[in-house]
Amino acid sequence: MAYVDRQGLTETAAAEISPASVSDYFALLKPRVMSLVIFTALTGMALAPGGIHPILGFVSLLAIAVGAGASGALNMWYDADIDRVMRRTRGRPVPMERVTPGEALAFGLTLAVGSVTLLGFASNYLAAALLAFTIFFYAVVYTMWLKRWTPQNIVIGGAAGALPPVIGWTAVTGTIGWESLVLFAIIFLWTPPHFWALALYKADEYERAGVPMMPVAKGVGRTRLEILLYSVVLALAGLTPTALGFAGFIYGAVAAIAGAVFVAAAIRVYRSREGVAGERAARDLFAYSILYLFLLFAVLLAEAIGTGVGGMV
Q1: Is 94 within a domain?
Q2: Which CATH number characterizes residue 293's domain?
Q3: Which of 30, 234, 249, 285 could form a disulfide with 197 if both were Cys (CB 3.0 to 4.6 A apart)?
Q4: What predicted TM-score, i.e. pTM, was given to this entire model?
Q5: What is the pLDDT of residues 57-116, one digit of tens each?
Q6: What's the rounded Cα separation, in Å, for the pair 140 and 70?
Q7: Does residue 15 form part of some domain?
């Protein structure tokens, strides 16, 4: 009978377990991205016709949030090599070795299965299927393929970040409404200028990490032009909820003003040159783009609550 060194096995097992804290696992969820997912999904639920019981609505929203967290954890598991190179991401739990890759993978997969199952029970199977597709698209199609292969990674991969309001709407209605697809389009068009503005002043990091972001693959000039073009289309798309009748005058006014400011910021980026001024213009657009999306969805949510249209009742 072979002798088993149980003390050695114990020491080996302990070495494979990271000294992770609760905050490390929370960081794997990408809480800032999760907060945006919660906000846009809630807006989709509030705008949806009909209603859902508040408890089921809360559980559905929680499931969508956990699904977003699962995507973040799986992304950090696979992208640890990239995160380790970039200053913006090298402090994440996996490259800092506070969480092992295996733990991040297991955590992400557990959350993914749990969130999809929970949403299926709390709302309906179509919403659960959309959540499962979103997790798969972000973790596999975007993270494992698009991000490392094409400068259109953000454009195509942006579909994953644009789906939460559709999932929220579907959780209430059991169907995919055209109104939710308009919200999808707004986020989808918002994603490229938002991330390309970031990429403009982080281009050296992306190049060092081997990620073909637009400034690295096509150059700064092409990136500035595409930011401007997307910004114009985004500003027009932002007006469509009012034009199509499911948002009010206040939203239309806010969208018009906010869209004009967005385009003005994009023009400033387009006209800027290399150096401090160009970096400042890109940073300003990146920061404003977050405010822009928040304003649009906040007003949509406020109008839906104020008029009592659909939502969690």
Answers
A1: yes
A2: 1.10.600
A3: 285
A4: 0.91
A5: 999 999 999 999 999 999 999 999 999 999 989 999 999 999 999 999 999 999 999 999
A6: 12
A7: no
